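Worked example 3 (structure in, sequence out).
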């Protein structure tokens, strides 16, 4: 099994599409950092002091008025609730700030997850089109074992690619912030950014396995990408429009809450459905398991010649 995993990892590293996707994304990151730095500027000390004063005034007013007389969530003090409503960045001068780094990372989530989908679909679909899978199964006849080895490499590889790209993005924006923005912040920006990178990378790895499974079913890269696009962009939007409550079972909605780690409420008539990050992770895992199982059954049942 170790030799099989090593061979699959070598195949992953040698894929031109992986290299080109990383190169093009890195170029885009550099360009984005340069543009962000060019439109930002370091705020004056007076601007920072005024922003801090406005923040403290707003927070004090909220606490004095009992959270503006709203019903507090259970187990939350007035001060905790008010701090959740106000942020220093709300009053900060315009420009790059370290406490907004995690939001920039989250803004790149769609592109990174899409890269994972393309990598997964290509690793299986292109192998079908070129006849590589037929060749592999001449020396590794245990189809299920080989399929799981490729899935493991695809998921891990896509996760690593996503983590590397997002880390480079965070470093580039952080450097631009140090040069042209402000690094003054009291928020745990480093931990928030690291957690955002980890969440996006893991979701990207899961989506890559979905792409690989669909490509195994359709035996074609374009067919896999087209099927996933039609499902998420067309079918899910139709379902979401007709029955919003079913969004708790849709892949797109659950990817969103898993990546952002926020709770989302879905309203359907008088019913309210709450999506949590934990629910999103479970739904994504179910999609992966079901599609991988279907792909495995088809791989075992049909001719590969």
């Amino acid at each position: 099994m170790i030799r099989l995993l090593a061979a699959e990892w070598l195949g992953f590293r040698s894929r031109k599409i992986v290299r080109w996707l990383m190169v093009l994304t890195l170029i885009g990151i550099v360009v984005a950092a340069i543009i962000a730095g060019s439109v930002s500027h370091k705020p004056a000390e007076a601007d920072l002091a005024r922003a801090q004063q406005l923040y403290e005034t707003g927070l004090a007013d909220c606490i004095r008025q009992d959270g503006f007389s709203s019903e507090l969530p259970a187990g939350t003090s007035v001060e905790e609730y008010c701090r959740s409503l106000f942020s220093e960045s709300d009053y900060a001068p315009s420009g790059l700030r370290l406490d907004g780094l995690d939001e920039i990372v989250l803004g790149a989530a769609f592109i990174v997850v899409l890269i994972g989908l393309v990598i997964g679909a290509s690793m299986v679909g292109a192998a079908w089109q070129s006849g590589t899978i037929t060749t592999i199964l001449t020396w590794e006849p245990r189809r299920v074992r080989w399929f799981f080895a490729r899935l493991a490499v695809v998921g891990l590889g896509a996760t690593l690619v996503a983590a590397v790209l997002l880390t480079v993005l965070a470093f580039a924006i952080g450097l631009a912030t140090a040069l042209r923005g402000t690094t003054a912040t009291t928020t745990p920006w480093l931990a928030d950014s690291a957690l955002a990178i980890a969440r996006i990378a893991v979701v990207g790895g899961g989506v890559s396995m979905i792409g690989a499974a669909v490509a195994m079913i359709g035996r074609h890269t374009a067919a896999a990408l087209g099927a996933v696009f039609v499902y998420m962009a067309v079918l899910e939007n139709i379902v979401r429009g007709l029955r919003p409550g079913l969004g708790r079972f849709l892949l797109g909605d659950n990817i969103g809450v898993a990546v952002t780690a926020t709770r989302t409420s879905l309203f359907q008539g008088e019913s309210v459905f709450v999506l949590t990050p934990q629910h999103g992770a479970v739904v994504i895992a179910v999609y992966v398991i079901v599609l991988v199982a279907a792909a495995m059954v088809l791989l075992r049942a049909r001719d590969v010649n």
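Notes: Residues 143-180 form the longest helix (38 residues). The radius of gyration is 23 Å.
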